[in-house]
Specification:
- The complex is a heterotrimer of chains A (217), B (672) and C (109).
- Chain A is 76% helix and 0% strand.
- Chain A starts with a helix and ends with a helix.
- The longest helix of chain A is centred in the first third of the chain and has 33 residues.
- The radius of gyration of chain B is 25 Å and the shape is globular.
- Chain B is an all-alpha fold.
- In chain C, α2 runs antiparallel to α3.
- Chain C starts with a helix and ends in a 12-residue tail after the last helix.
- Chain C is an all-alpha fold and 109 residues long.
- The chains are: A mainly alpha (217), B mainly alpha (672), C mainly alpha (109).
- Chains in contact: A-B, A-C, B-C.
- Chains A and B meet through α1, α2, α6 and α7 of A and α1, α6 and α7 of B.
- The complex binds copper (II) ion.
Chain lengths: 217, 672, 109
């Protein structure tokens, strides 16, 4: 780490400015570096939520007196794996459309950028709709947020992830609105790329959740 | 947040210099440069630093008052000044206030003010996020303290608020809700600040200022911000779980449902132990600046200083369960954490040895900053040693939850962190305010504080070993605790006298300075080593006329001093000839903004909504959204703000409006 | 517009790569889902390791290609890696302290 930045530091502020703002010691814009730091921090947030879920999933099954009650049935048995697989796939594909939007904007192809942006937001919304459907189904089965330790941990984890998806969609739609007004050009490609980093991160978290929460028994 | 900070989004493409661009903000851009409006809309890292310091000092008085109440209650057996219930609230709020609202923001004050100066930058990487950090912290702190008035009493679960004591059953007032949401808000402030300061240090250094030429204070702050970045999300999780349990009926700490209350302890201390280093490392950085200046020698073993700091930061994540030895972790866990805790004493010891080696053989100037620094070295060593004694698990089982622990962490946090911060106040006061604090009063302040501090916390070692529990509202005369408790209570009043001396010194120094015709202390009153002393005092708004070029560690010193044939330092230039004049005109700076304040104001309202009535949250959310969108569509720098001739060098600070200075890009584009 | 022209050279068109990566991701997701239908093909004790490998691979592909870490400055990769490794270390130790990996009952009685 030190060497790279040492080398970069010597070329420091005397280099000319480019479209991305001023030249930095690391050669990375402040915004992008800031976003990556934030994502590094988010790893520990989701790590904590996932660990809490794993711990309480196991505890529910081993808590004395809970083995044979109906409460125990209100756990992982309710998962609808084929359904979740489809929505996982949808979110995965939204990462593809996102990266294509960034790549289009880098070539200043604004028409395609708008198209892929809209596709990403729609896929994200589809995923969210699926989550709402899943939550409703669980509620109908009698598994609510307050039912047991498993359900509290499950709804908190997936709820946090869903909130991240929702924020991502709002960011994408804001950028789409800017694009419609012609304010999203190749000059802002990096802004879109940074929004994309956030979006992919949310996707990557779901990759982990899909396996750790849904598939592993 | 990085996304909304990026402004070109809101600017029409290809805008060129001199073209007036229609500002897109909803609110008119604040224009005043003086008065309270200039302060509430400022994005200047120096003003923000000063505000951090003032607010932290205010909370210090609040936390000190709480401490005094605790000591008065314990001044005699069967004390009746505070009921058991109120006593619980007072010690909880004393701890929370001192940790989150005093030491952290005071360190943030120095970080904000000094980091850009020490690396030769015009501002931090994200000036408006910096303002946001401050306002969010302020609102979070006020929110926490509102619990006294509208929460039915403060939180009563101790600063680490163990489950299930923190649950509704055992803590039915809203105090703990204010705790969990207030700390959540303060945590947001620290997280934003950490991203901002890390990016600043990594990205905004002056040419030649390589990482290993940075002052030790900057290094320690970099480590601290990294610790915050990676430890805050863990307490965020814990506080969310607690809030959900209390406000939405979830079962995370509901033992009847099979929940494990140790989960809270783990999450809290995964954050809590790094937090200890977050509190102490800034002060380590401060004395590492002061000791070389006053001992007239370079810092001994700079690389060791830096690497031990990094090691402390790294290892700080692997020792948390030493707070839980008495909780039945199991012998394997206890043994592992006991060992790792003993190892972390090594890099800390390296630092103490380095400071002593720096002082060794130096012509030490015994002025106030140096006294406080030496005080830190001595007092922290005591606290560090008592800390090693509870790394040993069998000893710890005896010490846990006794006054011995209270003695230990006050030697570390008061004798370490706070003495260091006071050293910093005396040292950088002339740079910040353009006048020196009275040295004689300062020395009185130091000695009175030192005596009071040792009288207050020294006896607690004995009380703890005698078996006096912490957090117990009172004791019996037959317990044999009376004498040392009385000594401790006497001590706290002496500390108070010291604090009054400090506040008096601030006023007195200002008055004499004004009466003497406001003499300027010059850029470099201490004949110091780092970059902030190469510019006028107080620091001009634009920091540097010319962004300096750095050729060595302690570059400013080497511009003043060379070596004779026997290797002794000799003056080669006067400070006046090497210091900058501070007269550059038209350097363009990031423009002030209302939005950080507006955005931050939304958060506590949402907090009230969660606690009392969901409807209250609606205006909070609206305010928050208004703040975010207003922010996103407001350019960071008003195009009109940098008309006219630019300074000698225009490449500092926050220069988002790249178009105004557009020249062909000569280096590889940073994207892709 | 000259600077825009320079931009084009700075950003090679990687769309074909992205689509290929997405296809691989889709296939891996298929394999993952397949483990659920034990009646069709039971991976037995290999199920869990297989799932974890699939997960790690997907994680890597998204971070390396879609998030450009493969081509970006190493400091970004390191920042993210520190976050991931720290999270793994800290939480695995925590779960170990809860005897999470023990097959037996964790609760008394
Ligand atoms: Cu600790």
């Amino acid at each position: 780490m030190a060497e790279t930045m040492t080398a970069a530091a010597d070329t420091g502020h005397h280099e000319a400015h480019d479209d991305h703002g001023h030249v930095t010691n690391t050669g990375i814009s402040n915004e992008k570096l800031g976003m990556w730091l934030f994502l590094g921090s988010e790893c520990l947030l989701f790590g904590g939520l996932i660990s809490t879920f794993l711990l309480y999933k196991k505890k529910l099954n081993t808590f004395p007196g809970f083995e044979n009650t109906t409460v125990n049935k209100l756990g992982a048995d309710l998962f609808d794996i084929p359904f979740t697989s489809v929505s996982s796939f949808v979110l995965l594909m939204s990462s593809l459309t996102m990266v294509l939007a960034v790549s289009s904007l880098q070539r200043d192809d604004q028409r395609r950028t708008r198209l892929w942006l809209m596709a990403t937001a729609l896929l994200g919304s589809t995923f969210l709709a699926g989550q709402v459907y899943e939550f409703t189904a669980f509620l109908n089965e009698g598994l609510g947020f307050t039912t047991n330790i498993f359900s509290s941990a499950f709804f908190t984890l997936t709820g946090f992830h869903g909130a991240h998806v929702l924020i991502g969609i709002v960011i994408l739609m804001t950028m789409y609105a800017q694009a419609l007004r012609g304010r999203l050009t190749s000059r802002n490609a990096e802004a879109l790329e940074i929004a994309g980093l956030y979006w992919h991160f949310v996707d990557v978290v779901w990759v982990v959740i899909f396996v750790v929460v849904y598939l592993i028994k | 947040m990085a996304l909304v900070e990026r402004e070109p989004l809101a600017l029409p493409a290809g805008a060129s210099a001199g073209t007036a661009i229609e500002p897109l903000g909803v609110l008119a851009r604040p224009a005043t440069k003086t008065g309270w409006r200039a302060w509430v809309t400022t994005v200047d890292h120096k003003k923000i630093g000063i505000m951090y310091g003032v607010v932290a000092m205010f909370f210090f008085l609040v936390g000190g008052l709480e401490a005094t109440l605790i000591r008065l209650q314990l001044a005699q057996p069967n004390g009746s000044i505070l009921s058991a219930d109120v006593y619980n609230q007072v010690y909880t709020m004393h701890g929370v206030t001192m940790v989150f609202l005093v030491i952290m923001p005071m360190a943030a004050a120095f970080a904000n003010y000094l980091l850009p100066l020490q690396i030769g930058a015009r501002d931090v990487a994200f000036p408006r996020l910096n303002a946001l950090s401050f306002w969010v912290f302020l609102f979070g702190g006020l929110f926490l303290n509102r619990s006294w008035f509208v929460g039915g009493g403060g939180p009563d679960c101790g600063w680490f608020c163990y489950a299930p004591n923190s649950g509704v059953t055992f803590s039915p007032t809203h105090g703990v809700d204010f705790y969990s949401i207030g700390l959540q808000i303060a945590g947001v402030a620290s997280l934003i600040g950490s991203v901002n300061l890390i990016v600043t240090v990594l990205n905004m250094r002056a040419p030649g200022m390589t990482l290993f030429r940075m002052p030790v204070f900057t290094w320690m702050q970099l480590v601290v911000q990294m610790l915050l970045l990676f430890s805050l999300p863990v307490i965020t999780v814990a506080l969310f779980l607690l809030s959900f349990d209390r406000n939405f009926g979830s079962n995370f700490f509901n033992v009847a449902q099979g929940a494990d209350p140790l989960l809270w302890q783990h999450l809290f201390w995964i954050f809590g132990h790094p937090e200890v280093y977050i509190l102490i490392l800034p002060s380590f950085g401060i004395v590492s600046e002061i000791i070389p200046v006053m001992a007239r020698k370079p810092i001994y073993g700079y690389p060791f200083m830096v690497f031990s700091g990094i090691a402390i930061g790294f290892m700080g994540f692997g020792v948390w369960a030493h707070h839980m030895f008495a909780s039945g972790l199991g012998p394997m866990s206890v043994a592992a954490f006991s060992l790792s805790t003993m190892f972390i004493a090594v890099p800390t010891g390296v630092k103490i040895l380095n400071w002593m080696a720096t002082m060794w053989g130096g012509k030490i100037l015994y002025n106030t900053p140096m006294l406080f620094s030496a005080g830190l070295v001595a007092m922290f060593t005591i606290g560090g040693l008592s800390g090693v004694t509870h790394a040993i698990a069998p000893a710890d089982t005896q010490q846990t939850d006794t006054y011995y622990i209270v003695a230990h962490f006050h030697y570390v946090l008061f004798g370490g962190a706070l003495l260091g911060l006071f050293a910093g106040f005396y040292f950088w006061w002339p740079k910040i305010f353009g006048l020196m604090l009275n040295d004689k009063l300062g020395k009185w302040h130091f000695w009175v504080t030192l005596v009071g501090f040792n009288l207050t916390f020294g006896p607690m070692h004995i009380l703890g070993l005698q078996g006096m529990s912490r957090r117990i509202q009172t004791y019996q005369s037959t317990d044999g605790f009376t004498f040392w408790n009385q000594v401790a209570t006497l001590g706290v009043f002496i500390i108070g006298a010291g604090l009054i001396l400090f506040l008096y010194n601030c006023v007195h120094s200002y008055r004499t300075w004004k009466a003497a015709g406001r003499p300027n202390p010059g850029p470099d009153p201490w004949d110091a080593r780092s970059l902030e002393w190469s510019i006028p005092s107080p620091t001009p708004e634009h920091n540097f006329d010319v962004v300096p070029e750095i050729h060595a560690q302690d570059d400013f010193w080497h511009r003043k001093y060379g070596e004779d044939e026997r290797g002794r330092a000799v003056r080669i230039a006067t400070t006046e000839s090497v210091a900058q004049k501070g007269d550059a005109k038209g350097v363009h700076l990031p423009s002030p903004s209302f939005y950080p304040l507006i955005l931050a104001a939304g958060l506590p309202i949402i907090g009230y909504g969660v606690i009392f009535n969901r409807l209250i949250a609606i205006p909070g959310v609206l305010l928050f959204l208004f703040g975010i969108y207003g922010w996103a569509f407001e350019p960071a720098t008003e195009p009109g703000d940098h008309e006219g001739d630019h300074g000698h060098d225009d490449h500092g600070g926050d220069d988002h409006d790249g178009a105004a200075l557009a020249t062909p890009a000569t280096e590889e584009a940073p994207v892709g | 517009m000259t600077s825009t022209a320079e931009h084009h050279e700075a950003h090679p068109n990687r769309d074909a790569t992205y689509v290929k990566v997405a296809l691989i991701l889709a296939v891996i997701t298929g394999i993952e889902t397949f483990t659920y239908f034990e009646s069709v093909l039971d991976f037995g004790r290999a199920t869990m390791p297989l799932l974890l490998v699939c997960m790690g691979l997907k994680f890597y592909l998204i971070a390396a290609y879609f998030m450009h870490l493969k081509w970006d400055k190493p400091i970004l990769r390191r920042t993210f890696t520190v976050g991931i490794l720290l999270a793994l270390a800290v939480y695995i130790i925590t779960l170990t302290a809860f005897r999470f990996w023990d097959a037996v009952d964790v609760m008394p009685k």
